[in-house]
Write a structure and sequence with these properties.
322 residues, FAD/NAD(P)-binding domain, Elongation Factor Tu (Ef-tu), domain 3, Helicase, Ruva Protein, domain 3, 6-stranded mixed beta sheet, 5-stranded antiparallel beta sheet, elongated
Length: 322
């Protein structure tokens, strides 16, 4: 029977970081993971460069039924603390957009950093190693049935992550274990995901794939409202980009989603002013504010002629556009 002060199930970002810190504080630590390679989600994050933190990350940026936890956790270990760790390991990085930090080289550097932190704490790692069962012990602590034999520990950390991307090892292990021990379960749903449409519904906009522009996207009301001023990306199946990925965590099926394509411009006022002062065609006027591909699809969808001179445009049509 193997015995440890702490067993961490899950060799991802959270599990490796926790194991390394605990080991360096004198605990005998074991990390288990059923996947053959560790930290696969780190490996694919940030386009392979790992967007490892944000300079401006704070409690308000997290969704939680217990906001007090976010405040206390981030007060004890801040984004600046992690940046200092990355710097200490000699990893070069750059700021890309609104405080987002990426490795100059590769996400592998962050994985190697976490491995070195675990080695510094004398952490043992069994991988691949499945966990068949977890039981509490009468005298305290836990016993685990693993592929490498039974293990006892005083403390158990479940860091198996969510259900996303099962092809790289994600599973419902953590959810099942939480249910086993009587925790309240929040029904899982997709978050930080693109919005996709039925092929027929999206056909008029499919040609816009690859086009990006800044928008304000919002949904919900009151405390449940989400609102982001970020870039939107058209794809061959729907909408993506930072604005959509973030608002997806707030949006629920059947709920209205508002997208302001001209957040820095009062389009209704601009079009009325152009009608009075400009001889340009409608398509060219809109092209001053939006990508031409978007203008063409937009006008075709509304049945409006791009070649119509601005003074001849009906107020009703301009209002519909705005």
């Amino acid at each position: 029977m193997h015995s440890f002060d702490l067993v961490v199930v899950g060799a991802g970002a959270a599990g490796l970081f926790c194991a390394g810190m605990a080991g360096q504080r004198g605990l005998r630590v074991l990390v288990l993971d059923h996947a053959p390679r560790l930290a696969e989600k780190i490996r694919i994050s940030g386009g392979g460069r790992c967007n490892f933190t944000n300079r401006d990350a704070g409690p308000a940026n997290f969704l939680s039924d217990n906001p007090a936890f976010c405040r206390s956790a981030l007060a004890r270990y801040t984004a600046q603390d992690f940046i200092a760790l990355v710097t200490r390991h000699g990893i070069a990085f750059h700021e890309k957009h609104k405080g987002q930090l990426f490795c100059d080289d590769s996400a592998e550097q962050i994985i190697q950093m976490l491995q070195r932190e675990c080695e510094a704490g004398g952490v043992q790692r069994w991988q691949p190693c499945t966990v068949a069962a977890v039981r509490t012990q009468a005298e305290g602590g836990f016993e685990l049935d693993t592929a490498q034999g039974p293990v006892r520990c005083t403390r158990l950390v479940v860091a198996t992550g969510g259900l996303s991307i099962p092809k790289i090892g994600a599973s419902d292990f953590g959810l099942r274990l939480a249910q086993q021990f009587g925790h309240r379960i929040v029904t899982p749903r997709p978050a930080l995901v693109p919005l996709t449409f039925a092929e027929a519904d999206w056909a008029p906009f499919a040609a816009l794939s690859g086009l990006s522009l800044p928008v304000v996207v919002s949904t919900g009301k009151g405390k449940a409202q989400g609102r982001f001023h970020e870039d939107l990306l058209f794809t061959h199946r729907g909408l993506s980009g930072p604005a959509i990925l973030q608002i997806s965590s707030y949006w629920s099926e059947g709920q209205a989603l508002s997208i302001d394509l001209s957040p820095e411009l009062d389009l209704a006022e601009a079009l009325q002013q152009a009608k009075q002062q400009s001889r340009r065609q409608l398509g060219n006027e809109l092209g001053e504010h939006f990508p031409q591909r978007l203008v063409a699809a937009w006008l075709e969808r509304l049945g409006l002629a791009a070649s119509r001179p601005m003074p001849e445009c009906k107020d009703k049509d301009l209002g519909t556009l705005a």
